[in-house]
Amino acid sequence: MNSEIRSGIAISVAGFLWLLLEFFLGLHTTRIDYQPFFTWLSVIIPITGLYWAIKAKRDRFYEGKITFIHAAKTGLIVTAVSSIISPLLAWLYVSVVNPFYFSTMITHRKQMIEELNLSSLEEKSIKINEAYQYFNVSTYLIQSFLAILIIGVVLTLIIAALIKKNKHNVLAENILSN
Prior knowledge:
By secondary structure, this protein is mainly alpha-helical. Helices cover 81% and strands 0% of the residues. Helix 4 (68-97) runs antiparallel to helix 7 and helix 5 (101-115) runs antiparallel to helix 6 (121-134). The chain is elongated.
């Protein structure tokens, strides 16, 4: 279980470093329009972390073969650890590193709403209220927790289904290693 905890922590820290990279690239300040596209690339972190964790468990603990259940259990533990630690690091980011994150995002959203040229003042008001409801600490932390949990579970199931070694995979690895 120690390797699963370490993997969960590693994924969380890598996600925090990704947030810092986004910040230093200006994706949370001056280049906000590009942030959603760049953020989707961060899915590489849990894919890689979960794959390595499950593969390490398979190779070290199960002598090169792992059942779907054991692989899924490993991935779910990693996901649970990461879904607990990542929101804490997200809170650290919005509290210490970028305390203006939410106000910057709300200002940007207001500018986008103005560019929509909505005819009704009521429509604008509703959209602005939605921005305030969306961009706040509690919503951000809940989204962080749920996103990591959902993405982690889905990726775990996919990786667990693909990582099992069968006779053909072992034969191919033996041929390639010689």
